[in-house]
What does this fold into?
Amino acid sequence: MSTRSPAFSVLAHHKFRNFLLARFFTTFTMMMMSVAVGWQVYDLTKSPFALGIVGLAQFVPAFLLTLPGGLAADRFDRRRVIIFGVSMELIVALTLLAISLSASPKIGLIFAVLTLIGVGRAFIAPAAQSFLPLLVPQEDFVRAVAWNSSVFQAASIAGPAVGGLLYALGPVYVYGCATACLLTASVLFASVKAPAIVRAKTSTRIADLFTGVKYVFSRQAILGAISLDLFAVLFGGATALLPIYASDILHTGPWGLGLLRSAPAVGAAVIALYLAHHPIREKAGAKLFSGVAVFGLCTIVFGLSRSFALSLGTLVVLGAADMYSVVIRQTLVQISTPDAMRGRVSAVNLLFIGASNELGEFESGVTAAWFGTVSSVVIGGLGTLAVVAVWAWRFPVLRQMDRLDNLNKT
It folds into this structure.
């Protein structure tokens, strides 16, 4: 008689285990490089606006290519689509390594090569999200989402911390390690073979790119969930400004920046592991809004903090609150969408996420240049709270959503 905990039973599926490990390496790499790039750009420019451009450089190609990436996930082998995206990120790591080895790194070239991260993400993200339901039975899917989120957060903790430590030796060490990790991830993704799915043939009309958009806008709960994330993080995200906080406000070095970047993931990992053992059973909609509200409050506290310890603690709570909403939103989107549409619907979801993250970084850089760093973060937190109030009123079906394991498709 097996004594394995239900939370760990999902790991019995070897394809899922390999997928998780590959996702760890890709996320670890991106988080590690984000610390190096952020510090390197601010060190070269001392400009909040330049930090905003880092986000914009990644957002523009992702915005243009995420819908095609979702269509590719529904038309082609999702594993190969993922590997193509990882190859784009590998080119970025190698190019940044070469730039850092040069005598005088060019900031324009750094911005240019960062666009390939957006290209890679546009194909990896929808293919990976729509690939996940094929690796486990549906009854294990909520736990699979929690484990997937846990691995993402573990990589988000380790990546910035390792990136900050390696950057103390030099950026070439960060980008060299990133190259090795991405090569490993490619091999692991290649080993994951999901069951063959017979899909209806899809045409190549331009209109098919927008099928996922139409589906999302026809489902009020899905639309409300992903648009809530879009605007809440767009206003509340202060990630782009962490190099300024580490350098000029909290007065730490690259190691401090690494810890600040890791802190939200610590809280998120704790919540994700908790949800793997205790899946959300009821009042999912109310918990979604509560998590986003706490995210906004923590953003305000972080913006006003002058204590490194308080800032770290606040970011841990912020990450925990954000993870609550992530698990609810991802479960809602994936379970409520038929497999033949998952790639395109995931693309729309990820387009919203990309806009909230990278475009939010640009917005933070611009507002910091206009109003100052602290004012920018505080205003963003207040904006997040306003979004929660408006969305709770505008999307009652989402606010009243109860069980995640009994979602309908209407």
User: Anything to note?
Assistant: The chain has one domain: 6-189+208-399. DSSP finds 16 helices and no strands in the chain.
